[in-house]
């Protein structure tokens, strides 16, 4: 058995594993324990998760560094996850007592600041370049009709297809999103995010995540994608702007073209899991 921790960032939840511990098959570990009906047990029964974060802490660096690998419930590895990186920063801060952490991800190294009430992480420069998203177009995809939505493609560490709508609750995301997520326009697939203006300012957000293959309560890269598309369209300036996924509010701002994502992180519980869970007959 190995010790693990369960964290969430505005409802985007993760099983956190110290990468120094032996997990022979990380993909199987993630698919088993992230399952919402039979996965990791919380205080109130099976809770599952949106992914398993394998974190290698290197405390000798100044500031400390964390090598982050996110394995999603379908066994795929995500190159970036905004809320996951914020969780990784909080986990490292708990172990080092430091309020600044560097997070090494497949999408690049990101600087995080851990405060009393929120964790802020630098998310890099959003790009609409079709080769970088990637999207199978000669130029940027902006407000292109797909599955009844006007879709703009942007990469915020992972590819997102973003559509602004009148009311996010009126969108049947489970029906519409898979069509866009697997569309030929996106050779690597895409996360699908819809957004609408909020009466109190900012934008409401819902995201269907690639790799989770369903809607999540929050998506950090999706929140940045909403802000980036809104900024490109002249709806907002460099911020800060409040993005409101179902799991809680996030704040996105920009400085010299770089996006910053801020919001709370919660340590839910600790547990012990078998690194190789026996398969059921």
SSE map:
Layout: E1 2-9, E2 12-18, H1 26-33, E3 41-42, E4 45-46, E5 52-58, E6 65-71, E7 77-78, H2 82-96, E8 100-105, E9 108-114, E10 119-124, E11 144-146, E12 149-155, E13 159-164, H3 173-181, E14 191-197, E15 203-209, E16 214-216, H4 220-232, E17 241-244, E18 250-255, E19 258-263, E20 266-273
Parallel strand pairs: 2-5, 6-8, 13-14, 15-17
Antiparallel strand pairs: 1-2, 1-20, 3-4, 5-6, 6-7, 8-9, 9-10, 10-19, 11-12, 12-13, 14-15, 15-16, 17-18, 18-19
Give a short synopsis of this structure:
The protein has 4 helices and 20 strands. The protein is of the alpha+beta class and 281 residues long. It has an 18-stranded mixed sheet that branches. A two-stranded antiparallel sheet has the order 3-4.
How would you characterize this protein structure?
The chain is α+β, with helices and mostly antiparallel strands and 281 residues long. It has two domains: 2-118 and 265-273, Diaminopimelate Epimerase, Chain A, domain 1, CATH 3.10.310; 144-254, Diaminopimelate Epimerase, Chain A, domain 1. Helices cover 16% and strands 40% of the residues. The chain contains four helices and 20 strands. The protein has an 18-stranded mixed sheet that branches. The chain has a two-stranded antiparallel ribbon with strand order 3-4. It is globular and about 50 Å long. 47% of the residues are buried. The active site is at residues 81, 219. It is found in: Cytoplasm. Pathway: Amino-acid biosynthesis; L-lysine biosynthesis via DAP pathway; DL-2,6-diaminopimelate from LL-2,6-diaminopimelate: step 1/1. This is Diaminopimelate epimerase.
